[in-house]
Structure formats: C-alpha cells, structure tokens
Design brief:
The chain is of the alpha+beta class and 239 residues long. It is built from six helices and 14 strands. Strands 8, 9, 10, 11, 12, 13 and 14 form a seven-stranded antiparallel beta sheet that branches. The structure holds thymidine-5'-phosphate and aspartic acid.
Length: 239
C-alpha cells in the first residue's frame, strides 16, 4: 500500500490517496477547533488517541452489524479506510440533555431521556451546519428516504452498542455525532470518527467530563481527560 498525494485537510484529519482507488489513508492531527472553527487549539496526543479509539470502536460496531469504513490501522495516527462520498448530514444521537439541546430548549444538562433522540444537521460549514428534518434532507437531495432510514437504524444500533460498552468502562454516553458515507457501489457505511471529539462521555460516578467539552468550555485537564478515557476503553476492550 503506497501513500500518495493529500486530497483534503479537515479540522482534525488529513486524507491521502493511495495506489488503490477505493482506499484512502486518514491521518489524525492534534488540532482542535470548536464553534465552527472560531476557537482553535492543540490537544497534545489527541490524534493518536482518536485514531486508536475510533478504530477499536468501529471494529466492535462492525461485529454488531454496522458496516464501517475501517480497513486497517497503519500507524499511531494513520488508518486505511474505504473511500466514500460523505453523506452531508451530521447525525446526532442523545441519551441525556447537554450542549446545543439544553441551550435550544432551555433545559438543564443531565436530564436522562426515556428514549434516545435523533437529529440531523446539514454538514455545511458556510451555513453553520443548520439543523434539518428528514424531509428537508430528502428535498435537498442530501440522501434518499431509504438511505435515511438505514442511517437512522445504524445510528440507534451504534448507540445501543456504545452505550453498553462505555457503561462497562464506568462511562456514561451522553450524546454523539456520526457521519455516513456511500461507497462506489452505493453502500451506506459509517465513516469519519468516533472519539472524545465527537462524543460526550461523563464519568458514571462523578459526572466528570472526559471529552472535548473540556476544550470547548476551557475546563482545563484536556489531555488528561483524553488519556483517562483511552485508558478506560483499553481496560475493558476485548475484540
Ligand atoms: P451539540 O450538543 O453541540 O449539538 O453536540 C452534540 C454532539 O455532537 C456532541 O457529542 C459533540 C458532537 N459534535 C461534533 O462531533 N461536531 C460538531 O461540530 C458539533 C457541534 C458537535
Ligand atoms: N467541529 C466543530 C468545529 O467546527 C467543533 C466541535 O464543537 O466539535 O470546530
């Protein structure tokens, strides 16, 4: 496998072509942003942690019937993935009120829902990733009705699997964001990453935040939180 030219640089990752047209290499950076890139910083070691964590969680999900882009971890920061065209929807699942949900509806953080919620936003930085419903997504031709139904099914399955796994680590899965992609043959698979950048993870006993909210909200101890959550994962993980 040969790493070729860089195709894209995002906020947290770079993407490279390879000598196989349907495979790409993702390279995880330590760069952190928040509020649509307004706040910028570095979380030392984040790229290594997010690469490993995302790969381990995606392998677990694949075993549970959620197809993912993961192929092979190549190095501390690099992973070989299936090439997809990203469905321009951010899918957010919530088990507990927090973040923009708490703000939008004027409720406190920490309300445990009877059932998980799902919401979509249009992945478009220029527009600030506006919230939309599934009919809007279909009208805008971001995905078909059938694709959205599958994305919803996979997203709730991801929640079921990850909620149980994080509970076994002494961690509460509050909410998370997923992105899906379409392979060259039109198959919908889970893409992007699953990491403390894209999930809210609270210590089950103390409620301590072990995710990127420490960076977003200037809570301090950001690197320590990433190291702690990785340690918890490795202590409980079996392939
Ligand atoms: P929110 O409460 O700010 O809408 O965030 C919900 C979840 O989505 C939270 O776990 C953080 C994650 N998230 C991202 O991964 N990327 C983003 O750009 C945003 C805004 C949130
Ligand atoms: N992806 C967001 C950004 O635009 C960061 C976040 O809040 O996760 O910078």
């Amino acid at each position: 496998m040969e790493k070729l030219n860089q195709l894209y640089e995002g906020k947290a990752k770079k993407v490279y072509a390879t000598d196989e047209p349907e495979k790409l290499i993702v390279d995880y950076k330590d760069d952190a942003t928040a509020f649509n890139g307004l706040k910028k910083g570095t979380i030392v070691g984040k790229g290594v942690i997010n690469n490993r964590m995302s790969n381990l969680l995606m392998q677990k999900l694949a075993k549970e019937g959620v197809p993912t882009h993961f192929i092979e971890e190549l190095s501390e920061r690099e992973t070989l993935v299936k090439k997809v065209s990203i469905v321009p929807l951010e899918v957010i699942i919530r088990n507990i009120s927090a973040g923009s949900f708490a703000k939008r509806y004027g409720v406190e953080e920490g309300i445990v829902f009877d059932e998980p919620t799902i919401e979509f936003s249009y992945k478009n930085d220029d527009l600030g990733d506006p919230l939309l419903n599934t009919r809007h997504a279909i009208a805008l031709k971001l995905a078909t009705k059938e694709e959205i139904a599958l994305i919803e099914k996979y997203s709730f399955k991801v929640n079921e699997v990850l909620k149980a796994f994080w509970a076994s680590c002494g961690v509460t899965l509050v909410d998370f964001k997923l992105e899906f992609g379409k392979t060259c043959d039109g198959t919908i698979i889970l893409a992007d990453e699953i990491s403390p950048d894209t999930c809210r993870l609270w210590d089950s006993k103390t409620g301590e935040k072990l995710d990127k909210d420490r960076f977003r909200r200037d809570l301090g101890g950001v690197e320590d939180a990433y190291a702690e959550i990785m340690k918890r994962l490795l202590d409980s993980y079996e392939k």
